[in-house]
Specification:
The protein contains 23 helices and no strands. It has about 575 residues and is an all-alpha fold. The chain has 4 domains: about 50 residues; about 120 residues, no CATH class; about 140 residues, no CATH class; about 210 residues, Phosphate transport system protein phou homolog 2, domain 2 (Methane Monooxygenase Hydroxylase, Chain G, domain 1, Up-down Bundle). The two termini are about 30 Å apart.
C-alpha cells in the first residue's frame, strides 16, 4: 500500500507540474496519473488502495471543501450570501428535475434511477472550482465584486446539497424510504453524545481517564464504536476545563491562550462530526483494527488530534486574532505597560523540544523582533531630530523607548534560551541562535540612539551650535540610517541580492563617516566650529557608524536564517 501511495503522490505531482509548464490545469495531470496507474492501463496500484479508493475520494472532497471555507471571510459571505445560496441549489435542482423528467423518456430509466443520475451530474467539481477560485482571490481578480467568493461559496454548498439528495435517491433506488423521523433523530443523538463526553471529561478533569472508561464501555459491548466517537469528540472539548480553571486570575494573554485551546478542540469536533455524518469515517477507522473497540477508539483519538493540528497549525495567527476579538483589551488596562506582544509566556518542555519547538514559535518570534526593530527605528529618528532641534525634552521619550527595548531584549533572550535548550535539530538550533544575535544587535542600535539623543541635552545646556554644513550632514546621517533600517523590513529579506543592497548601504555609512570627519577637520582648521561642538560631532559620527555595523550584522543573520529554512 505504501508503495502505491508513494507512486500516486510522486507521479501525480510530476504530471501536475508538467501540465502547469504547458499552461494546462494541474488537475489534468493528476487525472491522467489516475488513469495511467489504474487497473485499466498499467495496473500498478495495490488492490488494498483500490478497495479504499471511495473513502479516499470522500476524504479528499472534505479537505477541498475545508480549504474553500478557510479561504472565505465572514464579510465576503455576508456580501454574497443570497446569490451564493441561490447558486448552491437552484441550478442543481433544475438539472435534477430535468433528468428526472426526460431521462426515462430518452434512456428508458425509472424515475428514481433518473433522479440518482441527475444528482450525480448536477454536482460541481470542487477539485476544479476551489483551487481556481482561491487563485483568483489571491491575485485579487474580481474580488471587489465578490465574484470568486460567490462561486466558491455556491460550489461548496452545492456539493453538500447534492450529496444529501444523492444519498436519499440511492436509498430509494435500493428499496428504502426517506424516513424524516430517523433523520431528525440523528442530530439529537450526535449532540447528546458530544455533550455527555464534554461534561464527563470536565467533571473528572482528565481526558486520559475518560477515554479509558469509554474504551472499557466499548469493549464490554455497552456502547458501539459508531456512537462512542461522538462522545470521544466531546471529551476533547471537556479536557479544556483544566486550562480554563488554570487561567482564572491570570493575565488576558493567558486567557486568550485558553480560548485558542478551546477553539482548537471545538473546531476539530465540528469537523470530525461532519466527516462522520457525511462519510463512513468511523467504519474506515474500525477496519484498521477489527474486533478491537479499545484500539479503534485510540486510533480515532489519535487521528482527531493529528488531523486537527495539521489543519489549524497554519491558522495560528488567525486564531490569535480571533481570541483578541473575543477578549479585547480593557480600556482601563495600561497599554503602555511593557509586555511581549506576540510571544506567549509558555514554558517549553522537553516534549515540545522533541517536536521542534523553534519551528512552532518561529513566526511569533519574528513578529516580536519586527516590533522591536520598529521601536529602535523610531528612537533613531527621535534622537536625530532632538540633536537637530536641540530639544532635550525628547530625551525623556527616547529613554522610555530605550527601557522598553532593554525589556524586550531581556525577555526575548530568555525565551530563545528556553527554545534552544530543547532544540535537538542542528538546523533549528542555528536559526534560533541567529535570532538571539539579531535581538542583541537591535538593542545595541537602541543604545546608540540614546547616545545621540543625549547630545541634545549638552547642546542645549552649553549653548553649543553646529554649523549649517554640520547640520546638513546630520540630516544625511538620519536619512541613511532610516533607509538602512527600512531595508531590514523588506519582503525579500535574506535574499542574496537583498544582502548585497544592505551591504552597500552599510558601506555608504562608512564612506559618509570618513568624508564627514574630513569635513569636520577642515572646519576645525578654519575655526568655524568650537572645540565642544567638534567633540560632540565626532562622538555622533562614531554612533552613526556603529548603527550601520549593527544593521549589517542583522542582515547577515537574516540571510543565514533563510539559508537554514
Amino acid at each position: 500500500m505504501l508503495t502505491s501511495l508513494a507512486l500516486i503522490f510522486l507521479v501525480g505531482l510530476a504530471m501536475a507540474a508538467l501540465c502547469q509548464m504547458i499552461r494546462l490545469p494541474r488537475i489534468i495531470g493528476m487525472l491522467l496519473t489516475g488513469i495511467l496507474l489504474g487497473p485499466y492501463v498499467l495496473n500498478l496500484l495495490d488492490d488494498s488502495i483500490l478497495m479504499i479508493s471511495a473513502d479516499l475520494r470522500e476524504m479528499a472532497l472534505v479537505i477541498i471543501l475545508i480549504k474553500a471555507g478557510l479561504s472565505l471571510k465572514l464579510q465576503d459571505l455576508k456580501a454574497v450570501g443570497r446569490p451564493a445560496l441561490m447558486m448552491s441549489f437552484v441550478p442543481a435542482s433544475f438539472e435534477i428535475v430535468a433528468y428526472t423528467l426526460f431521462a426515462p423518456l430518452v434512456l428508458g430509466l425509472t424515475r428514481v434511477e433518473a433522479a440518482v443520475m441527475g444528482s450525480v451530474l448536477a454536482a460541481v467539481s470542487p477539485a476544479v472550482v476551489v483551487p481556481r477560485m482561491v487563485q483568483l482571490m489571491e491575485e485579487g481578480r474580481g474580488t471587489k465584486q465578490h465574484i470568486p467568493q460567490m462561486i466558491l461559496a455556491g460550489a461548496s454548498l452545492d456539493d453538500v446539497f447534492v450529496i444529501v439528495l444523492f444519498s436519499t435517491f440511492t436509498g430509494m433506488a435500493q428499496g428504502g424510504t426517506a424516513d424524516l423521523g430517523a433523520f431528525a433523530g440523528i442530530p439529537v443523538s450526535i449532540v447528546l453524545g458530544i455533550a455527555v463526553g464534554a461534561l464527563f471529561t470536565a467533571l473528572i478533569q482528565s481526558s486520559s481517564a475518560s477515554v479509558g472508561i469509554l474504551q472499557a464501555l466499548a469493549t464490554s459491548g455497552a456502547i458501539s464504536f459508531s456512537s462512542s466517537v461522538f462522545i470521544l469528540f466531546g471529551q476533547n472539548i471537556g479536557t479544556c476545563i483544566t486550562a480554563v480553571l488554570a487561567s482564572i486570575g491570570t493575565s488576558r494573554s493567558a486567557k486568550r491562550a485558553t480560548i485558542i485551546h478551546l477553539m482548537f478542540n471545538i473546531i476539530g469536533t465540528v469537523l470530525f462530526t461532519i466527516l462522520c455524518i457525511l462519510f463512513p469515517l468511523a467504519d474506515l477507522v474500525a477496519s484498521f483494527t477489527p474486533d478491537a473497540p479499545a484500539a479503534q477508539i485510540a486510533n480515532m483519538h489519535t487521528i482527531f488530534n493529528i488531523v486537527t493540528t495539521l489543519l489549524l497549525l497554519p491558522l495560528g495567527n488567525q486564531l490569535a486574532s480571533l481570541a483578541v476579538r473575543i477578549l479585547p483589551e480593557q480600556p482601563e488596562e495600561n497599554r503602555d505597560e511593557m509586555h511581549l506582544e506576540y510571544l506567549t509566556p509558555v514554558q517549553v518542555s522537553s516534549k515540545d523540544g522533541n517536536l521542534g519547538a523553534s519551528a512552532i514559535h518561529i513566526g511569533q518570534l519574528q513578529q516580536e523582533l519586527d516590533r522591536m526593530l520598529d521601536m529602535a527605528q523610531d528612537n533613531i529618528e527621535t534622537s536625530f531630530d532632538a540633536v537637530l532641534s536641540r530639544d532635550s525634552s525628547l530625551l525623556t521619550k527616547a529613554e522610555k523607548m530605550e527601557s522598553y527595548l532593554d525589556f524586550l531584549n531581556k525577555e526575548i533572550s530568555k525565551y530563545i534560551s528556553r527554545l534552544i535548550t530543547y532544540e535537538t535539530n542542528e538546523q533549528g538550533s542555528s536559526i534560533v541562535s541567529s535570532y538571539f544575535t539579531i535581538t542583541g544587535n537591535i538593542e545595541r542600535i537602541g543604545d546608540h540612539a540614546i547616545n545621540i539623543c543625549g547630545y541634545s541635552k549638552l547642546l542645549e545646556e552649553r549653548h553649543i551650535q553646529f554649523s549649517a554644513q554640520a547640520q546638513e550632514e546630520i540630516c544625511q546621517m538620519r536619512d541613511i540610517c532610516l533607509e538602512a533600517l527600512n531595508a531590514l523590513h523588506q519582503r525579500e529579506a535574506g535574499d542574496l541580492l537583498w544582502l548585497t543592497d544592505v551591504s552597500a548601504l552599510e558601506q555608504r555609512i562608512d564612506d559618509m563617516t570618513d568624508l564627514f570627519r574630513k569635513d569636520q577637520l577642515e572646519r576645525m582648521k578654519a575655526g568655524t566650529c568650537s572645540d565642544e561642538a567638534c567633540i560632540l560631532y565626532s562622538e555622533l559620527l562614531t554612533d552613526f557608524e556603529r548603527i550601520g555595523d549593527h544593521v549589517l550584522n542583522i542582515a547577515q543573520e537574516m540571510s543565514s536564517i533563510r539559508e537554514h529554512s
